Amino acid sequence: MSLSVRLLHEFPGFSLNVDFSAPSGVTALFGRSGSGKTTVINGVAGLLRADQGRVEVDGALLMDTENGVWRPPHKRQLGYVFQEGRLFPHLTVKQNLLYGRLFSRGRRDGAQLDRVVDMLDIANLLTRQPDALSGGEKQRVAIGRALLAQPRILLLDEPLAALDEQRKSEILPYLERLHAETDVPVLYVSHSVAEVARLANWVIVLEHGQVSRAGPTPDVIGDPAVAPQLGIREAGSILSAVVERHHPDGLSELRLADGGALFLPRVPAAEGQGAHVRVLAQDVMISLSQPEGFSALNVLSAQVSALRAGDGPGTMVRLRLGAGEGTADLQARITARSAAS
Amino acid sequence: MWPPDWLSAAEWQVVGLSLKVSLWATLCSLPFGIAAAVALARGRFVGKSLLNVLVHLPLVLPPVVTGYILLLTFGRRGALGGFLHEHLDIVLAFRWTGAALAAAIMAFPLMVRAIRLAVEAVDPKLEQAAATLGASPVLVFFTVTLPLILPGVIAGTVLAFAKAMGEFGATITFVSNIPGETRTIPSAIYAFLQVPGGEDSALRLVIVSVIVAVGALLASELLARRVAGRIGRS
Fold first, then answer.
1. Among A47, A149, A155, whose Cβ lies nearest the Cβ of B134?
2. Facing residue for B131 by CB, picked from A73, A88, A146
3. Inter-chain Cβ pairs, chain A and chain B, closer than 8 A
4. Residue B134, SS3 per DSSP
5. How distant, in Å, are the alpha carbons of A203, A239, A262, A277, A326 from that of A256?
6. Using a CB-CB distance cutoff of 8 angstroms, which residues of chain B are in contact with residue A83?
7. Could you give the domains of chain B?
8. pTM of model > 0.95
9. Which chain B residue's Cα is nearest to A150?
10. pLDDT for B189-215, tens place per residue?
11. A108 at interface of B, judged by CB pairs closer than 8 A
12. What is the third-level CATH fold of A3-221?
């Protein structure tokens, strides 16, 4: 476990009580606003001094109230990307990027700047002032600045929340690359299932200051019990697939583990590459017989393994795809009336 | 011919002394001014309101009262004055250094006010960000806070300088009006107006005063604008 966090803190009207650990990779702290996500990340960063707790990152003990260990934020070797970027307005982009390096004595690496600048495509911004950047550019610089501080862990507090959809999709690929090209563990705060499904390999769901669910992303996102917190429209499942072939009509054929095929509008991955496919529960239809004569291309055979009625008119159905090795779970949301039949 | 002869030697001496007193007063009080401004803007400590009152007291007390308190404190028989004289051989009363002290104390509230406003405008979140990047609190101050409050520091410094140039009441009470030692421009104007035929000299010094004041304001405006341009909208 590369990250282990236990934090207890009393605020007026809110108490935080979390205890979790996570493997290396990208860990998402997921929850509605007000569930305590940012508080947890601030506790890890040391910007909040929790009443009680223990935080360990990659073998380094950052705080432990029982043994009186407390490292102030500047001694924690963090990279923190804030929601609003927080670039220094009096410095150029390049000076912002190098700010963390001023203090990481003995950990310098000249090639690093070029690599990070390349990865984030910010070479043409280096001489500008933060003022002159768009929101998306600011966030990319903020990510670069955090990375160049050579952090032990990267903390991202809803880095996309302040951006519109277009800017979000502009930054997401960089975040994915971040995960692929660096081995820094990442703690990612988000309330967007789409972001979490796309970036994280481990999810911690927070509710009213407590951990309500934690585990590998497909397990958590695909768990019908978590559906109410995801928001019923966001509930769904994540399937692993391999890109089989790009067809000339603009579709890509993906092969699922159980052998089933999916046809999707061209996916940005090479043939033979693995991919995760998120299927929203509301997008799944169930047919009891082999369907014929309708427009859907993607037809998978599955077995109903569980039904879970919600408070409303909907019912969650868990379906099992395939048998033996390649099984996967798929969720479908149908009306209770349909489920009754 | 230097110095230009439109001022007499005595008048030049007055102007030179005034500039010297004000410069020293401003520069020496600047670090304390910044410290007080930061403490008042950000600090949470017992006695903060007391500090606030102390800093602003010279603004509301009659200057003569401030000067007399200085005389009681820093005079040779005063509590601090005696100590400074005996152990460090520093005498303030009736010296130009005393004039600088009086000017500094009178100008201090204005300086602190301007800088404090600038400190309050700095987003503490930027300082947090700097801390997460590895900067200790002292380095955060010098690399983030100070550059961001620079326009306010400049404004406060110039304001304090102008106030110091004009200080009269506390100065004349504390260090009197000794030509060549403590006779600054206001004291000199006052003295010239007391003697018949001194109006011309007084008028020339008035003109110098106005030039220095206007020049200081323009310079501060220019400097602050340049700094602000560099800092961006913050």
1. A149
2. A73
3. 78
4. coil
5. 23, 7, 7, 9, 8
6. none
7. 10-231 (1.10.3720.10)
8. no
9. B133
10. 999 999 888 888 899 999 999 999 899
11. no
12. Rossmann fold (3.40.50)
